[in-house]
Design brief:
Layout (H helix, E strand, L loop, with lengths): L9 H26 L9 H34 L6 E2 L8 E2 L13
Antiparallel strand pairs: 1-2
Keywords: Membrane, Transmembrane, Transmembrane helix
């Protein structure tokens, strides 16, 4: 049903990209608070190392998922032929896309 809806991926891609930027910032802030001796949340060295390793693994998985969805998003964009027909699989009947039209009020003529 929604296989050909590229636009439905855009919000997910945007939010995930934002989280990919903010995640390392949060990890750095957490590490700094852990290393400050006056902090009430300071812990031991082993906990910091485990946190860093788990953060790197989690971040790698997040990047992988983002790249998979982004690649599929680009593939759907490339599937649109110059004639305006969308071809996803060989032998499938193409879908004709309509030319976008402006409302007469916004037309220059």
């Amino acid at each position: 049903m929604f296989q050909r809806e590229r636009s439905l991926m855009i919000p997910w891609l945007g939010i995930t990209f934002l989280l990919l930027i903010l995640f390392p910032v949060g990890v750095i802030i957490t590490i700094v608070f852990e290393l400050v001796p006056e902090s009430k949340v300071s812990g031991n060295f082993i906990a910091i190392v485990v946190f860093i390793v788990l953060s790197v693994i989690t971040y790698s998985i997040e990047i992988h998922f983002f790249l998979v969805v982004y690649s599929y998003f680009k593939e759907l964009g490339r599937a649109a032929s110059p004639e305006g027909a969308l071809h996803l699989h060989e032998g499938e009947k193409p879908i004709q896309l309509e030319e976008p039209r402006l409302h007469p009020r916004f037309s220059r003529y």
